[in-house]
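In response to reviewer comment 3 from the previous cycle, which asked for concrete evidence that the modeling workflow produces usable outputs, we include below a single protein chain processed end to end. The sequence was submitted unchanged, and the resulting structure tokens are shown without manual editing.
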Amino acid sequence: MDRPEHFASEHASLTRRFFLQLGAGAAAVLPAPAVWAKQAQTQVVSDPLLVEAVSELEYLTPLSKFRRQGGRGNPRIDTLPADQLPSLGLTPETWRLEIVPDPDSDSEMGNPLSNERGNALDFPALMKLAETRAVRFLHVLSCTNAPTPYGMGLWEGVPLREVFWMTEPKRNIRRIFYYGDYSDDPKYCFQSSLPISRVLEEAPGEAPVILCYKMNGQFLSQAGGGPVRLVAPGFYGNRSIKWLRRILATNTSQSNDSYAERNNDVESPIKTCARFIQTPKKVRAGQPVAITGLAQVGPSGLSKAQYWIKPAGAPMAENDPYLAKGDWQDAAILPPPEKWGGDLPNGELPPVMQMDPETGKPFTWPIPNTLVHWAALATAAAPGPYELRCRTVDANGIAQPLPRPFGRSGKNEIAVVALEAEA
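The workflow returned the following structure tokens.
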């Protein structure tokens, strides 16, 4: 599996040092670098082993380095010149959102929001709602079939339910269909759906479905889905449709998702899994080297990030399709950072749903539906080729790629990279 080279280039700056304390027979313990919580630094103890490793890890992905989905259309929306956007309703001045009953369903509304009725939601009305209803939350953007996340963002918007209730919904509504297309050609249509229950409420600690207009404190760009996109927390990015302009309330029990039509499990929540950021290609045999990575945290949480260094060609255990019998070693999971990065002024995080407003600390760490960083020391005992793997163990004690090892519901194969140990 490919390593996330874009994360390495985005986050890794080999300009500082951090200490790794290695206990006899124990896993490496990683104290926090300067951008991480100061209280964790007090846990550092003197140790003769000092290694050069990544220290300037930005938690939030800068907007310029956030990987973008390709978009749809011919030409693609994210490549259109600015003077064409107003006629397509893709500027704050011309954007309108319709929420109407599905004409092929028996759903009923007392006050549909539509262009025809002249009451479609516009951007100033959304900003007026934002004055008292806006929410912010941290969330990873990850694609069902992509090997690595697209980025880690701070999303801001108004809960969709605040606008949905304006339509005076009456009866026979089980789902919403929503669209981000600007063409009548079906092959360019980008659409998805959600149960109405997910729009109207969420479990304690869960973020709401939002009409999103900002990421990392800045209004969405054209490429980022602006002026408004839908963000559906807990799901892969195919549910968070860009360039949102139309929502249908329907009584059907079936989804209409573009990705579902391509043999994907669109109902799958984000999976907990690990990926490498920096690994050496060549090392000195018998000498430990630092490896770093990230872990995507799904709703099942995260208890461990682990690595396994194995001589290439050595036989695998029999009847072990998910590599559960490997010699897995615990890595250290970095604590919450002090400076969150991502273009925020001075790296300071504004109030967000997952943080205690009194202390400014996360209610839980790692935060579900986000990323965390991890690091460890790995040692190749003798010269020769090796295979280096990483995985997660979720908060239920279940190791990756379980409990959901099915590829079309989100990539979570165990990552592997080659390593050569020299004498």
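The first strand starts at residue 17 and ends at 19. We consider this sufficient to address the reviewer's concern, and the full set will be provided in the supplementary archive.
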